[in-house]
Amino acid sequence: MTVLVRRMADAAIGFDRVVIAFLAVLALVALAAPAQVALSLGFTAQNLLKIAPFLAFSVLLAGYAKASGMDNLIARVFTGATPQMIVVAALFGALSPFCSCGVIPIIAALLAMGVSLPAVMAFWLASPIMDPSMFVLTSSILGPEFALYKTFAAVSIGLFGGFLTWGVQGAGGFAQVLRAGVGDGGCGGGVVRDPKPVVWRFWHDAERREKFRVAALDIALFLGKWLALAFLLESLLVAWLPAETVIRFVGTDGFASVAMAVLVGVPAYLNGYAALPLVAGFIDQGMAPAAGMAFLLAGGVTSLPAAMAVFALVRLPVFALYLAASLAGAFLLGLGFMVVG
Questions:
Q1: Axis crossing angle, helix 289-302 with helix 272-285, rounded to the nearest 10
Q2: Which residues make Cβ contacts (< 8 Å) with residue 285, sequence separation at least 6?
């Protein structure tokens, strides 16, 4: 606990953008409506306490993935015929513990080594939408049905993008994939170039136990600060955003509300974990669940950090297909949630 507190203090001193945003929002609320500060802090603390068991499980799961070397499994995914690789890559992307930015160096290595672009696209699209920690937290905040459908949607968008890319390549597209000067993914691509065996019982190794400790503390800080900011913003949505305003734009199941959620999700999405409480707040205010699903799907793939990383890595036609597949997939799967949600 002392180490975690020290890391949080170091983050604040080091101008952590999330900590600064949290304090800035509190300061603005204190100026505009002083009485709301205590209410918002109470709301934030109450919700953090509510999801604490799920948060702890997510932290332990992320630490285990890092310490055991589960990322080395990725080298085994991209082998075989292209259709087979697309299917396996989409499944692995939705279930693997990689965030949208953390997977970038691995993708760079795969592409530089000549791995099939359709398979890489399938993995790339599915990975940022869902992972084991995301599944646990989505279940706790939005419910297990929402989490299960979001996992299905992640795989579906990956398959859609992968097979679409395969079709474009078959028609002669994408002769050049990577931008000039892009290397093989640096140290992050080592799991592809020189994969090591996974050590499932890592606790017998002192070095791996240290990796677990560091990774668990890092993800605890990461999730804790983003969720705290998200719950703070949710408290303000509940207090200040009239429910009728939400209902007017995205409050009914239909093409228009889902399309609006997809478009809003692209610029408004901050972080996959932070988005969960915000969407829960919008749904409580009257947002259609299908629109909430579309927002999470579109924003997960096209969030600014992920999109910029993709843009810096591949040539414009590949980037354009990446955006088109993610947005079209989010829209179609959002509509699909109206049927099953």
A1: 160
A2: 237, 238, 241, 243, 246, 247
pTM summary value: 0.71
Q: Do residues 322 and 310 touch, judged by C-beta distance below 8 A?
A: yes
Question: For residue 314, what are the β-bridge partners?
Answer: 178
Distance, C-alpha 230 to centroid of its chain: 14
pLDDT digits (tens, 9 = 90+) for 119-145: 989 988 888 888 888 898 899 999 999
**C-beta atoms surrounding 302 within 10 Å:** 22
Closest CA to 278 of 155, 138, 154, 157: 138
Residue found by looking up tokens 């949080």 in the block: 8
Q: Which two tokens stand for residue 244?
A: 């009728």
Contact in structure between 8 and 221 (CB atoms under 8 Å): yes
Q: Read off φ and ψ for residue 290, nearest 5 degrees.
A: -65, -40
Asked if residues 298 and 335 have their Cβ atoms less than 8 Å apart, the reply is: no
Distance from CA of residue 233 to its chain's centroid?
19
What residue type is assigned to position 337 of the chain? F
**Integer Cα distance of 138 and 125 in angstroms:** 19
